[in-house]
Every structure is written in structure tokens, then in C-alpha cells.
Amino acid sequence: MLQPATRAWVVVLLVMTTAEAQPQSLRGRSVTLSGSPLEPPPEVRVAASIPLVLLFDAPIDKDSLQLDASRLQLIATGESSLVIAPVVSPSEKERWVLRVRYADGARPEWAVLVLVSRPPEVDGRIDVVRRPQSLEACQAALAEARAQAELPRAEVWELADRLGGGAVQAQAIDAQTRNTLHAKGTVYLLATGLLLDFQVRNPPDLPAWTPIEAVLRSETNGALVPVRTMAVKPGRIAPGEEGRVAVDAELPSPGAGRVFTLEVRDASGRGFTLDSVQLPAAPAKTSGGQ
Questions:
Q1: Do 104 and 59 form a contact (C-beta atoms < 8 A)?
Q2: Under a CB-based contact definition with an 8 Å cutoff, are residues 162 and 190 in contact?
Q3: Which of 64, 143, 186, 287 is 20 to 30 A from 89 (CA-CA)?
């Protein structure tokens, strides 16, 4: 019987063979990760339905993978490899971001790639390598980290901006989900957006769960509320364990009403759906001088 690592490489070889048969200008090349915020991430050229093999120079934490599952299909993972295939091609101005963390803790800790469309060129294989860090660079990074630790955290200013001088309205949520996961929490109405904070329990008889996508939809008119970010603590929720999911969304349009459906999913589409999520009522406006 083939071992998991062997099966992964069989898939990689099959995908590479398929990619070579595509009527595109496919190529294999290397990109270098600098780890510097001053340098842009390497660009990788992709096209719809054409597999891309990513080979990393060290083991990766597969559970840390961040990608848009609605645009990119994850075909296979190995100890230090990924195989993906775009469902559609990026538009001329789109830049899709793929992030995965290295498992060895060395710098740069994350591999960040930007996926773009540059026809007729398409990358079939990318060797991802990290730029060696000099002693001076490591010392400078340590000094910067220490300096940043002594400053107020950036989240303080972000929260101040989101409050916008207004009050915070909260509404507890304790509803049954349609799916196998169980969740309850609170939704907060801020001056500039919504924050949904949930405790999630993964049943002991199901595999580990790593949510990467959240969708918030009005039950009044079906309108989608743009989701800015979604955070998970920890990033991977093991069987029988609990985790925390926070969804940061924009304010709904006036016609969207106060009742919404929240969906949170992993790369395979597994997750939970909360119906009838009711937003807090906005505080009544009072006339000046009263």
C-alpha cells in the first residue's frame, strides 16, 4: 500500500504530466521569499483549470494554508508541496494571495505568493525558496520587534476608528446550526461595521476543521454583506475541541433588514450555518438639546 507521502508525490507527478499537455506556455521556475515588508511578494502566473505545483524548500504547516476556496481548488498536499488549480482565471487587475506557514519556525515564517493572470504565460511548477537571513538582518529584526512590543498595539487604534465615537450595541446568539458543527456567540453593532464572535465545537467523530471563509447574507432581500476578515483561534480546531471564530463585516445596507444567515466554511465546504442571526437595534437618535 502506498504511504501518504508516496501518494502525494504520485498526484504531483500526474498533475505535472497533465499540465505539460496543456496548450499553454507553461514553465517551471524558482521564486525567492525575502521576508521583508518593503519587498512585494513574488508573482505566480496562473490560468483556469491548469494545475500548479508549488515545491517549498522546507516542510510546511498544511493547516495554516490560506487561499480563496471559491477561486482555487486544492488538489494535493505533501510535507513540502502543494498542488492547486484555479477554478477561474484572475482578471487583469486581480491579485489573489496564497499564504502558508513554514513548519520549522525559521524566517521568513510565512510563504506569501500573489497569483495573477499574464497570458499566454502560465507557471506549471514553482520552487519556493527563502532568502538566507544575515546576522545583521536577524539582529535588526529582533530590535524592531522589541521596539514594537513597547508601543501601543495597532489593534487599539483600529478599534478606536471602528467605534467612531458611537455606542456599541450587542445581541447574544444561541441558535441551532444546520450542519454538524455547533456554535453560539454574540454579534456587535459598531459605528463602522459588525463583529460576530462565536465559540465553535467540533464533534469528536469528525476530522479537524480549519475555517477559511465566512458569508453573511440578509434574510430580507438576500443581499450579501461584505466580510472584511475572519479570524480563528486556534487556526485548526481538533476533533472534540472548541475554538473561537470572529467575523469582521461591513455595515449592511438600510434595506437589508436586521435578520441574517451566517455561513462559515473550510476549504472543502464543511462548516456551520446559523439562521436568523438578529442584529442589535441601532440606538435611537435624539434631537440636540433634549
A1: yes
A2: yes
A3: 64
Q: What angle do CA 157, 160, 164 make, to 5 degrees?
A: 140
What global pTM score does this model have? Answer: 0.46
DSSP string, 237-264: B-TT-EEEEEEEEPPPPGGG-SEEEEEE
**Other C-beta atoms lying within 10 Å of the C-beta of residue 167:** 10
- Burial class from Cβ neighbours inside 10 Å (0-12, 13-18, 19+) for residue 219 reads middle
The single residue listed with the C-alpha cell 433588514 is 257
- Determine phi and psi for 154, rounding to 5 degrees: -60, -30
Which residue type is seen at 72? L
Each residue's pLDDT tens digit, 112-135: 999 999 999 999 999 999 987 666
How many other CB atoms are there within 10 angstroms of residue 55's CB atom? 17
Does residue 264 contact residue 237 with C-beta atoms inside 8 Å?
Answer: no
Q: Which residues pair with 183 in a beta bridge?
A: 200
Characterise 70 by phi-psi region: left (phi > 0), alpha (psi -120 to 50), beta (else). alpha
> In angstroms, rounded to a whole number, what is the distance separating the alpha carbons of residues 115 and 90?
8
Find out whether 239 and 203 touch, Cβ atoms under 8 Å: yes
Phi, psi angle pair for 118, to nearest 5°: -135, 65
d(CA 212, CA 65): 9
pLDDT tens figures, 201-246: 888 888 888 888 889 999 999 899 999 888 888 878 888 888 888 8
- Rounded distance between C-alpha atoms, residue 198 and residue 204, angstroms: 19
Tell whether omega for the bond before 204 is within 30 degrees of 0, i.e. cis.
no
